């Protein structure tokens, strides 16, 4: 069982990833029908027929969202979408969600209905049923936990641990925009707090705000790959930032990688706002979170098939483990990729 009971270890020291790998080592899957346990975008369970895929995520007020700029309807929508994204990342099709909420008495019936209107819109768009959940009181703000359930043929499932040397590394859409949208909202919130008379000026930033407040799960990419006859050799969704997700794929697959800075897709609006904030857009793409795009690898032989899929970008390739994980910069400079990502237990000021 757990060692080291005598001392006190701060969670911030081992981080979210450290904690999860400790849990994974203490709770290996023991049952034959647990096909995949802790460690991928979703658990995979053998049912005799098509395997069932299950994923859960928890959103806490003040940590994952700020209701001063996140409308409740958007929050409900986003909570569903981010869970469905994990199901698509397994190359599976979601069918049901369970939604649990803990509410403080600050929330009225109308507010809760607003939240669930967002849930309903996402369920309608992605054709899933809200099939249950739990409702509770909370003494500190809103907590929202969503579980998504899906299915896939066994040989269609895509995992994190199956990338192979020479595979091409691909991402969908563009990266960094959701993070920059959040920076913008935070800036306007600060301005408003200092000068309540000044209204937030968010004109011209619709795309970045939408990426933060109303993300979509890339089921279209999963379908396009299927139509093109390509099964990714590995896949996951980008919730914590490209660098840390690539780290997961490489660590779990026992490989290295090389990605090229100039190939990382960044929208022009993201680049402009990054400049305004004096930030490096590549760093935003690598370490900003919440883009909910897909990161996947394909066999080199599939290059022609994926080349024409809209919104898919090849950003590098998988190498052997000894070559490490490298970012090739615009001037051919090589820097080791660091998985900063989203660290839930990072010390907060
Ligand atoms: P994602 O970013 O795709 O939601 P996470 O990084 O949250 O994935 O989780 C990685 C893996 O660790 C998943 O398989 C998840 O189910 C598992 N995991 C996370 N927290 C816990 C926990 N408290 N107990 C058991 N498994 C966990
Ligand atoms: Mg995921």
CATH superfamily of the largest domain: PurM-like C-terminal domain
Structural class: alpha+beta
CATH class of the largest domain: Alpha Beta
CATH fold group of the largest domain: Phosphoribosyl-aminoimidazole Synthetase, Chain A, domain 2
Number of domains: 2
Query: Largest sheet, order of strands side by side?
Result: 8-10-7-11-9-12-13
Q: What is the radius of gyration computed over CA atoms, rounded to a whole number of angstroms?
A: 20 Å
CATH architecture of the largest domain: Alpha-Beta Complex
Quaternary structure of the protein: single chain
Ligands present: adenosine-5'-diphosphate, magnesium ion
What is the averaged pLDDT score?
93
Largest sheet: 7 strands, mixed
What can you tell me about this protein's structure?
- The protein is α+β, with helices and mostly antiparallel strands and 349 residues long.
- It has 2 domains: 11-155, 60s Ribosomal Protein L30, Chain: A (2-Layer Sandwich); 168-336, PurM-like C-terminal domain (Phosphoribosyl-aminoimidazole Synthetase, Chain A, domain 2), CATH 3.90.650.
- The chain has helices at 11-26, 72-89, 109-126, 177-194, 206-213, 219-227, 242-253, 268-276, 281-287, 303-307, and strands at residues 34-36, 43-45, 52-60, 93-103, 129-137, 143-151, 168-172, 234-238, 255-260, 293-298, 312-320, 325-328, 334-336.
- Helix 2 packs parallel to helix 3 (109-126), helix 4 (177-194) crosses helix 5 (206-213) and helix 4 packs across helix 8.
- The structure holds adenosine-5'-diphosphate and magnesium ion.
- The site of adenosine-5'-diphosphate (ADP) has 10 residues, from helix 1.
């Amino acid at each position: 069982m757990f060692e080291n009971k005598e001392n006190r270890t701060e969670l911030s020291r081992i981080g979210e990833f450290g904690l999860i790998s400790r849990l994974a080592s203490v709770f290996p899957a023991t049952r034959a029908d647990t096909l995949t346990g802790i460690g991928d975008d979703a658990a995979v369970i053998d049912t005799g027929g098509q395997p069932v895929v299950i994923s859960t995520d928890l959103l806490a007020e003040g940590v994952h969202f700020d209701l001063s700029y996140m409308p409740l309807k958007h929050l409900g929508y986003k909570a569903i979408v981010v869970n469905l994204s994990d199901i698509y990342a397994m190359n599976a099709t979601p069918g049901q969600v369970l939604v649990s909420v803990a509410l403080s008495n600050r929330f009225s019936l109308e507010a809760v209905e607003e939240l669930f209107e967002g849930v309903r819109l996402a369920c309608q768009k992605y054709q899933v049923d809200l099939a249950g959940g739990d409702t509770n009181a909370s003494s500190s703000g809103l907590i929202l936990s969503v579980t998504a359930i899906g299915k896939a043929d066994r040989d269609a499932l895509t995992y994190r641990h199956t990338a192979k040397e020479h595979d091409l590394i691909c991402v969908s859409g563009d990266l960094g925009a959701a993070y920059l949208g959040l920076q913008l909202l935070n800036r306007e919130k600060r301005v408003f707090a200092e000068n309540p008379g000044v209204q937030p000026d968010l004109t011209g930033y619709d795309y970045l705000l939408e990426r933060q407040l109303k993300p979509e799960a890339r089921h279209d990419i999963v379908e396009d790959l299927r139509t093109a006859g390509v099964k990714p050799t590995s896949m996951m969704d980008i919730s914590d930032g490209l660098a840390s997700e690539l780290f997961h794929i490489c660590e779990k697959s026992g490989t290295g990688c090389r990605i090229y800075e100039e190939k990382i897709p960044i929208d022009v609006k993201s680049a402009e706002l990054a400049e305004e904030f004096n930030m490096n857009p590549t760093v935003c793409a690598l370490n900003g979170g919440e883009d909910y795009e897909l990161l996947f690898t394909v066999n080199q032989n599939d290059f022609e098939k994926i080349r024409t899929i809209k919104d898919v970008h090849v950003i590098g390739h998988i190498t052997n483990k000894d070559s490490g994980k490298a970012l090739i910069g615009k001037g051919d400079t090589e820097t080791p990729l660091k998985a900063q990502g989203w660290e839930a237990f990072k010390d907060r000021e």
